[in-house]
Write a structure and sequence with these properties.
Layout (H helix, E strand, L loop, with lengths): L12 H4 L3 H20 L4 H20 L4 H4 L8 E2 L1 H7 L5 H7 L8 E2 L3 H13 L2 H16 L5 H16 L7 H25 L1 H22 L1
Antiparallel strand pairs: 1-2
């Protein structure tokens, strides 16, 4: 399955709306980008230039993205393409190399949710300098990793995504964030252990009996 993405803000409209609130939020995002590049050791001028590159590239990806209203209709997202059709859709991207690197299993077809987005991305690959892509990808690597980096990166991320974007007052304690990461990475294993400790065989039998009684009652009512 292939779908649109690659944005640092929650949705395409954050890049395209021209009302005062949207403009202000984009400026705050630009400042966040600059601050993050500064934390990577860049001087102010370089950080400002790199922030502009990222914002410009994400805005271009946003323009090629399908809006949230159209995405509500499954018919707009069902595009079954063969490997040859996928390569023809995005000739500037080496799918063979990418799928090999990620060890993707062989498949007869791909479900491409948003072909127009991939056309736009393909055009950007052809048009944008390689250095721009390096800057863009460097930002997204640091953005994804910032909760695991030093306190400065955590606080900078929270200042924008927590305070400015969704209005949180303060960062959650470190132990709660650690629990969330453990649950995200080991959720299935933790869930099994939790069920074993709190539910057990007796709880399972009790629940099965309850389900059977509900089925009997529904069978009678129907």
């Amino acid at each position: 399955q292939l779908d649109q993405g690659g944005l640092g803000l929650p949705d395409r409209d954050y890049y395209l709306k021209t009302d005062a609130k949207s403009v202000e939020l984009r400026e705050q995002y630009r400042t966040h980008l600059q601050n993050t590049f500064r934390l990577l050791g860049e001087d102010p001028a370089r950080a400002s230039a790199d922030a502009k590159v990222v914002l410009d590239m994400e805005a271009a990806l946003a323009k090629g993205s399908m809006d949230i209203v159209k995405r509500r209709d499954p018919a707009n997202l069902d595009h079954k393409l063969s490997g040859a059709e996928l390569r023809a859709l995005t000739p500037a991207f080496s799918w063979d190399d990418y799928l090999k690197i990620v060890a993707s299993p062989a498949t007869q077809h791909y479900l491409v949710a948003t072909p127009d987005f991939f056309k736009a991305a393909n055009q950007m690959i052809a048009d944008r300098p390689l250095d721009d892509w390096k800057t863009y990808l460097r930002w997204h690597l640091v953005h994804a990793s910032s909760p695991l980096l030093s306190r400065q990166f955590e606080e900078e991320r929270f200042d924008f995504y927590g305070k400015k974007l969704i209005g949180e007052k303060e960062m959650r304690p470190r132990w709660k964030r650690c629990v969330e990461f453990a649950d995200g990475d080991l959720g299935e294993a933790l869930g099994q252990k939790y069920v074993e400790m709190t539910f057990g065989k007796e709880g399972k039998q009790r629940t099965l009996r309850m389900v059977e009684e509900i089925e009997k009652a529904l069978r009678k009512d129907i």
